[in-house]
């Protein structure tokens, strides 16, 4: 593949190529780019015509890069990196408190702690368009999937070197069950107290660490919200962040199990993005809020039972 041929291509050509290559199908690429199926097919056909080679092998299971396509990929990723670098540098000079701000954070933090604060920030800055990506996955800040990531970090050494981070309060986890189930256990009522788990196999160690011993087959919840709902219903006991369990009036800590620190909350940004006014405003705002939540996050604010 000649370099001058690649250099004649625009970024718009390349992003279609990358979307198909990474998604493995035209359908996945169309969804990622927000266009229809026919548009992707047309753009790929035009690209192959301009290059004079087939860059994808069309199989029943999807699209696979040809040898020529693998060569194109090397140059395409270089162009993508240059595009993102240019974008973040320009973005870093943007000092207006307006525009799009993408924030990614775990679902528990969004729904059980920070949503009132995110709402307050939105009211304070009505010209900032806020997009919340509530996920536990690590968003790719380098590729601008998010401007700010709020993450639980156990070991700071695991953070990518290109990210700029600010450490917040430490986070503790405890074992919780419904207050009704705890009352029945204390009164001597018989019954199985199941361990409620998400994706764990077997019975976790915390199930037998305290005065109440979880027995029987685990109750498996598909996600965190279902896990909390199951605990409220008295199915058994489960491990939760203290800021979730202690704030829930229907739940109580399992006796004999002390909260355990699991790492800290970090507020992360990347490159020039952190210099924009809207990002700096948000980081200052959310860091102050998190500092105020330190006792709750560390499990120090639970009331006695």
Task: Give the key terms.
305 residues; alpha/beta; Arc Repressor Mutant, subunit A; D-Maltodextrin-Binding Protein, domain 2; 3 domains; nine-stranded mixed β-sheet; two-stranded antiparallel ribbon; 41% helix; disordered N terminus; transcription
Task: Tell me about this structure.
The longest helix has 26 residues. The chain has three domains: 90 residues, Orthogonal Bundle (Arc Repressor Mutant, subunit A), CATH 1.10.10.10; 106 residues, Periplasmic binding protein-like II (D-Maltodextrin-Binding Protein, domain 2, 3-Layer(aba) Sandwich), CATH 3.40.190; 90 residues, D-Maltodextrin-Binding Protein, domain 2 (3-Layer(aba) Sandwich), CATH 3.40.190.10. 41% of the residues lie in helices and 23% in strands. Helix 6 links the parallel strand 3 and strand 4. Helix 2 packs across helix 3, helix 3 packs across helix 4 and helix 6 crosses helix 10. The protein is globular. The strands form two sheets. Strands 3, 4, 5, 6, 7, 8, 9, 10 and 11 form a nine-stranded mixed beta sheet that branches. Strands 1-2 form a two-stranded antiparallel ribbon. The chain is an alpha/beta fold and 305 residues long. Belongs to the LysR transcriptional regulatory family. Keywords: DNA-binding, Transcription, Transcription regulation.
Structural topology:
Blueprint: H1 3-7, H2 11-23, H3 26-33, H4 37-51, E1 56-59, E2 62-65, H5 67-92, E3 99-105, H6 107-124, E4 128-134, E5 148-153, E6 163-178, H7 179-186, E7 194-197, E8 219-220, H8 224-232, E9 236-241, H9 242-245, E10 251-253, E11 260-270, H10 277-292, H11 294-297
Parallel strand pairs: 3-4, 3-5, 7-8, 7-9
Antiparallel strand pairs: 1-2, 5-11, 6-9, 6-10, 6-11
Helix pairs in contact: 2-3, 2-4, 2-5, 3-4, 6-10
């Amino acid at each position: 593949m000649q370099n001058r041929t690649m250099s004649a291509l625009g970024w718009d050509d390349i992003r279609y190529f990358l979307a198909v290559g990474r998604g493995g199908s035209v359908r996945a690429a169309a969804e990622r780019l927000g266009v229809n199926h026919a548009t992707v097919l047309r753009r790929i056909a035009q690209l192959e015509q301009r290059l004079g080679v087939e860059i994808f092998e069309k199989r029943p299971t999807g699209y696979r890069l040809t040898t020529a396509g693998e060569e194109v990929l090397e140059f395409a990723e270089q162009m993508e990196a240059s595009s993102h670098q240019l974008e973040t540098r320009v973005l870093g000079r943007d000092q207006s408190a307006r525009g799009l701000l993408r924030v990614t954070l775990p679902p528990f933090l969004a729904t059980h702690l920070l949503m009132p604060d995110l709402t307050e920030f939105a009211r304070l800055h009505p010209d900032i368009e806020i997009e919340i990506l509530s996920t536990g996955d690590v968003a790719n800040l380098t590729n601008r999937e998010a401007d700010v990531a709020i993450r639980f970090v156990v070991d700071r050494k695991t953070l990518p070197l290109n990210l700029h981070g600010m450490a917040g309060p430490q986070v503790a986890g405890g074992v919780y069950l419904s207050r009704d189930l705890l009352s029945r256990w204390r009164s001597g009522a018989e019954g199985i107290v199941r361990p409620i788990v998400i994706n764990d196999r077997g019975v976790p160690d915390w199930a037998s660490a305290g005065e109440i011993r979880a027995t029987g087959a685990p109750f498996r919840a598909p996600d965190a919200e279902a896990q909390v709902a199951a605990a409220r219903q008295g199915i058994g006991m489960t491990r939760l962040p203290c800021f979730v369990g202690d704030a829930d009036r229907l739940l109580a800590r399992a006796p004999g199990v002390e909260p355990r620190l699991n790492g800290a909350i970090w507020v992360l940004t990347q490159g020039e993005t952190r210099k924009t006014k809207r990002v700096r405003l948000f980081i200052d705002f959310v860091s102050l809020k998190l500092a105020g939540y330190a006792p709750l996050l560390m499990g120090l604010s639970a009331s006695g039972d």
